[in-house]
């Protein structure tokens, strides 16, 4: 798969660390780019997806102090795939702990998919700490969004072949509520079943995230450790409705952030987080820049999406 020409070159970190954020959890973070630069924090998707060196490349390293954070249980954070004390609100607190640890006053916040969810919730809780928001593949964790992708009748109509593989580990009489059925197995005591279900769940998501199925992305879903973290943590958050009190929590609190400079980038053919959520966010937040990418699905690695994200980060260099 060709890489977008818009990406900045590969770079190494100048600092990495582990920050103990609770009696149980320690989170991994890293810094790259300009140590004296303008801070930007990258919030990964999933939840449970973790970060990679690729995620540094949306930002001009001469200008930005680029911070990546592996959220609780994801990537290099420990304990791996842990669901204990792992909630949206704990992650928001962790982001603040990291900001204080790094002695940062305000930062640009960048997130796609679940990363957009967390970016929005973090900004609504701490609007005075956010210089700008760059959001991609909007996911607000509403029940309609979960039904579309994880239950029969939505995305299953577009990827019926991949759907048939996703349902295989689940007995037919439990397929009416796939999140519940997967949650039972992903949190069960049968290690072999946990891994098998984690791979099937992760493969469903990885094989539907681009217009053209990307074998590199799909191969990730077959890695036991990554798949267990991605599937267990995602399913835990969805089973618990994002730990939100109301289904439309983010839209109900949009007025807290409408003053913040923001760019929303949405793949027109995003099957994982379909365009309707981004459109709802745009209508509630007309001040934010908004663009549909005509030839893109969910992934940030779609060429047009990558280019638009880099353009947004370049625009916010002057803040
Ligand atoms: C609602 N979950 C989708 C999400 O946040 C996500 N993050 N990364 C991915 C892929 C690994 C499938 C690209 O999806």
Automatic annotation (TrEMBL):
It catalyses: Release of N-terminal proline from a peptide. GO terms for cellular component: cytoplasm. Its main location: cytoplasm. The keyword Hydrolase applies. It comes from the Eukaryota. It is found in: Cytoplasm. Residues 38-301 form the AB hydrolase-1 domain. Belongs to the peptidase S33 family. This is Proline iminopeptidase. One of its GO terms (biological process) is proteolysis.
